[in-house]
Each structure stands twice: as structure tokens, then as C-alpha cells.
């Protein structure tokens, strides 16, 4: 593409020079032609003037002859002036003829000869006017004179004719030369103009082609610039998205709860895919449905708050499921039927970690501005990180529960009790409210173990744990203190209320029927010792000891009872 255009460009200057030279040549030729035409006209005019002079001279000589003869024949005096006027005219004309033919020496020589002959002839004619002299002349002399006159007239005629013929010939030659020159000139001008016009036409065509090519290149350059700008914007967007993802990954590690994690994810999604909206569903442990845990954006598609596992293609297949408009894939059953289809894209991405399904990210948006390829990549990356974060959170929660819960009864363990008893006592003390502490021990548990076996004993302890959990308030702390001994912290509870609660527990335990290995166990009874702060002590360790002492006394007094340091039930 570049080689021909550069060759054309190289030829352009010589072509312009040639075209200009040809046009200049045509111009000069035109001027020269006009001048040559003028010169030819002048020489033609000159020839015509010479011819006219010859004919006028001849006419003047004839007029002189006619007047001379008229006078001699009629003797009328009127012929004399005409004669002399004709003689004078003939003499002037012969002189003019000699001057006019100065450009042609031979013609001038003829003109002079003719002038001399005419002059001689006119002198001879003048003799005719002198009648007396003629009559005095004898007949022989007159006859000789007449013969001489005739010869001179013939000579004058011959000279005139010769001059006329020569002038006609010159006229003819000049005319032919003028025509030849004119034809050559016209041919040259036509050729020069044609070549110049062809060259200029070719140049203009080349320029037009180049102009078109330049415009095309300009368009391509503009397109390339806009593509580059688009690429730069995309690069910036991707960099911003990478930065947001890295911030998200960092913050994920610090999330303390699923709610926090969902909130963070929704905000991040809002930033990363601003044109879309979405929801996050989390699985309920050991249940076959997912609940909406958070959302972002203005919803363009309506999806159920609770979805069954089988309602979502992504959950069923364990991989992302993408739909685009009416014809772009099957919609999941959790999307409401009456939501618009055309121009809407949606993407369901399962939240998976270590092979187990933890939830679902459902993103939707208008096809033009959301859930495109890049967005889908981001959403899947976010879903992957979120899945792992949820799994980590669950693991942490499990470990935390394991560290504070007793695995057999599900109640808090002794370490948790000791940590939280101090806090609860301080809180109640600040608010000037009482706090009761209950120590509970299963009666004759050794005997029970011995009769039914250790596994049956474990089953009883697990049941006791469940009963205690069901009988305490949410703010109470039910703990397994160790072995078959339990502790319940009752914040904001005075001695009376604590004793009532203890009695309820005793009744619930004695009516407990436990089935283990197809055998009915029980009934069981429990003994309970209670101490209340700040009445008994404001010190957690001491309060425990006082409650334990009350329990010891309850055992000593016959078991299956509740005993408070300050009162007995
Ligand atoms: N099955 C089972 N037994 C336990 C567990 N922890 C402690 N024990 C048993 O509980 C019994 C406690 O017996 P003791 O402390 O002598 O008291 P008791 O037999 O309950 O008699 P009193 O408390 O005086 O009514 C022991 O035999 C322990 O082995 C446990 O986790 N599971």
C-alpha cells in the first residue's frame, strides 16, 4: 500500500512541472500565434496594397492616355486638366510603389523600371497635347512615335503584369505559410493543453485518492484512539476492581459474623458491579433451604426470600448458572414469574467451600450494563472468596463453641462460666441489681452409673443439660461445672426468684423419663444450692464456694431439695 503511493508522490512534482511547462508553452505559443497572425496580416495587407498600387498606377496611366487621346481627337480643352491630373497621380503612385516594395529588392527594381517606363510614356503622351507640334511632324516620325508608344505601353503592361504575378505569388506564399504556422500552432496548443490537462487530471485524481485515503486513515486513527481510551478506561476499571477485591479479601479475614460478612460482600458488589442488583442467600445448617441474608442495588428482578435447593439450577449443578434475556438459558424457579425477561441478565453462583454448599449469590441487571463477562468473572471470584470466608467463619464458630461448650450437654463449660460470672456480677453491681448463682448436682449418680452403665449416665447428663437449657432465660448462663455438677448464673435475680426457679428445676427433673437403649431410666432427682450477690458475697470465687456449700448442705439434709444460704426451700 505504501510503495505505490510513495512512487506516485515522487512522480507528482515532475508531473506538475511538465503540466505547468506545457501550459506555459501553450500560452507562449498562443501569444506567438497571435503575433505571427498579426505579422501575416500585415504582409498580406502589404501585398494587397502593392497590388492595389499597381492597379491604381495602371488605371492612372490609362486615364492619362484616355485624356490625351480625347484631347487630340476632339481638341476640346476640357481633356487637358484630366490629363495632367492623371499624369501627376501616375507619377505619385509609381513613387509610392517603389517605396512600398522596399522589402523586396527585385520587386522594387521592377517598380522603378515600371516607374521609369510610365514616366517616359507620360512624357510621350504629353506630346499629343501639342497639336501644332504633332501636325508639324511628318507622317514617318508620327508613325515611329506611335510605334514606340505602343511598344512602351506593351512594356508597361508586361511589367505591371509581372509585378502583379510576383505579388500574387508572394501573397499566396504568405497565406500558405500563415496557414501552416497556424495549423502547427493549433496542433501544439491542443497537444500541450491535452497533455497538461491529462496530467493535471491524473494529479487531481491522485490527490483525491490520497485525500480519501487520508480521511480513511484519520477515521482509523480516531477509532484507534477511542479504542485506546476505552482500553485505558478498562485498565483503570480493572485496576480499581482489583484494588476493591483486595480490600474485600483483607476485610473478609476480619469479619466476626455472617451478618458482617454479608454486609461487606453486598457493599463490595455494589461498588464492583454498580449497574446491577443482587441478593445473598445462606444455607440453614442441616436444612434444605436458603434464606435471604442481604441484598444490594435497585432490584430489576424479583427472587423469593427463601429458596429451596432444587429451585436453583446453580445449586443443583454446583456451578454458576447464567441467563440472558428471553432466549439465553433457563430461568431458575426462585425468580418470580411476573418479573420482566427481555433485556435482563441474571447470574446465580453457588457459595461453596470444601465441597459443601453454603449459600448462593444471585445477581441481575439490564443486559446492556450488567453481568457481562468481566462482571461475571468478578462475581464468581467474590463468590469463591465469600464461600471460603463463610466456611472459615463456621469453623471458627465451631471451634469457639467447642472451646466454651460442653460437648455432652451442650451447656457452657466451666471456663466460660468463670470468665462470664465476673462480668455479669460487675454489670449487676453497677446497676445495683442482685445476681443469684445456683449449684446443681444429680443425686446418687454414682449408683446410677453403677446400675445402668456409664453410657446411660451420659444420656441422663445430656437430658439434664437440655432441661436446664429449656428452663433458664436467654440471659441466664447454664453451665456444666464438672462431672454431674451444674451451675446456673441468674443475673438480675434475687434469692426468692432463684429459689422458685430451683424448685421448678427439681420438679422438672423428678418428672423426667429418659429412654436409653430401649430401657426407661430414672427417675432422677437433683440437689440445688443457691447464693445471691451482693448479699452473700460480691466476689465471684466466694459466691461459688457459698453456693457449693449450700449444695453440700442440701445433700446432707436428704437431697432432692433447694437450699439457699439465707433461706431453705
Ligand atoms: N456417666 C458419667 N458419669 C460421670 C461423669 N462425670 C462424673 N461421673 C460419675 O459421677 C459420679 C459422682 O459420684 P459422687 O461424686 O460420689 O456422688 P453421687 O454418687 O452423685 O452421690 P451424691 O452426689 O452424694 O448424691 C462418679 O461415679 C463419677 O464417675 C460423666 O461424665 N459421665
UniProtKB/TrEMBL annotation:
Which PROSITE patterns does this chain map to? GGDEF
This protein's cofactor list reads: Mg(2+)
One GO cellular component term of this record is:
plasma membrane
Q: Which residue stretches, if any, does this entry annotate as coiled coil?
A: none
Name of this protein: diguanylate cyclase
Name any Gene Ontology BP term.
cell adhesion involved in single-species biofilm formation
State the reactions this protein catalyses.
2 GTP = 3',3'-c-di-GMP + 2 diphosphate
Q: Which Pfam families match?
A: CHASE3, GAF_2, GGDEF
User: GO molecular-function annotation terms?
Assistant: diguanylate cyclase activity
State which Enzyme Commission number(s) the record gives.
Answer: 2.7.7.65
InterPro entries in UniProt: CHASE3, Diguanylate_Cyclase, GAF, GAF-like_dom_sf, GGDEF_dom, Nucleotide_cyclase, Rev_trsase/Diguanyl_cyclase
What region holds the GGDEF domain? 433-567
